[in-house]
Queue: 2 jobs
Job 1
Amino acid sequence: MQRISVIGNISRDHIRYPDGHSGHYLGGAALHIALAAARAGAHAAPVAVIGDDLALLTREPDLACLDWSALRHATGNSAAFAMVYDTHAAVRCTSATYGVSHQLTAHALGHLARHPGDFYHLCCRRPLHVPALLSRLATAGARFSADFFLPSARPLLAAAAPWLPAADWIFVNAAEYRLLARTVDPAVLSGVVVTDGPRPARLLHHARPVAEACPPTTTAVELTGAGDTLTGTFLARRLAGASPAAALEAAVTAAAHHTTTRPRPLPAPYCP
């Protein structure tokens, strides 16, 4: 199986939930997706830039399954995000300080030049220069997938549009899919995975449904990272040869399980 290189942020997250609970957690889409892929049996590497505040990250026993060779440590602070969820499990507001992750585009372009044979997943988030990465992936003939984050999806979908037809898979939620369909004709897209909370997830091939999976009923206590868990699990299973239906079923099950366990707070060395 190809190594999955996941380009995106690793961050310190401050999350507030509608029940009043809040906490500081280790986060970032690159970490969540790579970790889910590794737990599903893939060789997965986060392509990220972290600062001094997360310098001990690679020593965490729970993360030993990851390939850390594509992680860059830079002097300064890591990206930090603050997110507030509403009672409908949607992000109501978010704020960010990007720190050393401003170096991510250059770092990722260098990694792609050295490892063109990897499968790439691009977390289309600020401050990454999405067109630079997607154009390089497409012109290099690399296999890749992409996902978006609703608060920034409109401008980043527009920026990514010319290269999305070259993607193997695009991962969006229902609201993001509506934006995607207004930006790119879904009929030109090879694979789109559309999630919709507790409702069935769908896999579309050139706008035609080819698989559907209903998440198991669970009591959710954690929201952050569920979509990333689905993405990483789906990629690992498909690249290992699973059918679209089997990969989607495994992915929605893993995502549902992720929501049932509150993440551990950031260890003391990482706390702000």
Job 2
Amino acid sequence: MASPTTLDAWLARLEAAHPVGIDLGLERVARVARRMGLLDAPVAGRLVTVAGTNGKGSTVAMLDALAQAHGLSTAAYTSPHLLRYNERLRLSGAEASDSLLIDGFTAVEKARVDGPPISLSYFEVGTLGALWAIARQRPDLAILEVGLGGRLDAVNIVDPDVAVITTVAQDHAAYLGDDLEGIGREKAGILRAGRPTVLGSTTLPKSVREVAAELGARVYALDESFFRQGGEAEGEEEGWRWRGRDPAGQSVEIDALPDPGLPLDNAATALQALALAGVELNATDCRRALAAVRLPGRMQWRGQWCLDVGHNPHAATYVASRLAARPCAGRTIALLGMLVDKDADGVIEALQPAVDAWVPVSLEGDRARRASDLAGRVAARGGTVWHCADAPEAGAAWLATRLSPEDRVLVCGSFFTVAAVLMAWQTAEQTDVNDSAMEGTP
């Protein structure tokens, strides 16, 4: 079969040939990686892997921005994407080109069939392709987000110099179960003997530290080895302070840090991870990076609209706290769309104190939850359902004509919900641009 010549064609082929769903295990992906030579030498000068239930994306984004501000070349691999597959791999801040991704997929496919063919999932092909592309660039620092779990995730075939665990909460119960100690042990599967481990939450299950102790991994934990003081409150113009450790154990402190609009515990975690990766932190560079970093879909404000992809109670609790710290004169309306395998009741309960009215929306696909189901769950908890819509973009369009200047809208519940609204806005903006161009044509 001839290889596809476009990225869209490659992605369509992968979706058809390999299940998009999760297929945990390292044996198959490691065999292909060995055929590709990816395990023969480090893919980057230094490598950081980031696992956790929530906070991975923001930690990776801030690590990437901080490293670049210090003059390092970087690679950042994350998943899933919002609008374009290219978002999953960034090289020194720029999305990977179609041609580089295609070359990576081609290299994976060649190795996959070089001998007895090996079945790989969509995510595994993407991860191997990204590692191949990173190895060709060999940046100073590579930052890899663990897609799900840790121990059996495809990213875990490479050994990190620094391992990060942001949070542990319930999500993906069908694969990881609902026992937090068990989930913690799976996340801790990314730890390595004798290597630094950064723990970015004060409420991690005991199993994480137990694995670290079993391995002899050196633990740097929030509020023990590194600290953040202040921030995340309206009007704190003086910024916040970070204090942590360098690889030699010496104390490092930086003050007057700006709020990046992302969780400050994750910002503190990123600073500690970068320091342990051997970067001598410069206060000016740190301030500059945190002031400029942006992560679409994470507390992303666009006028009256806030977009956040959080889809479990832990993430929703954080969003509610940030909304409470930023009160508005009008109503807060939640445009909520979720998948059936997510804890909708827990998300609604977490957001309820910060929300005045709800607009449930339906998503597409086998895992989609209907707006009527969400509306029933909202009503059962005493919430006000203002309107139901068949799609996120339809709900956003309905709301746009009914908001007062003092109101605000939270678009939330899923990557699919946020992506649909962003795509609709982009399409409308492009239409306006084209119409304007036509009007100016003689």
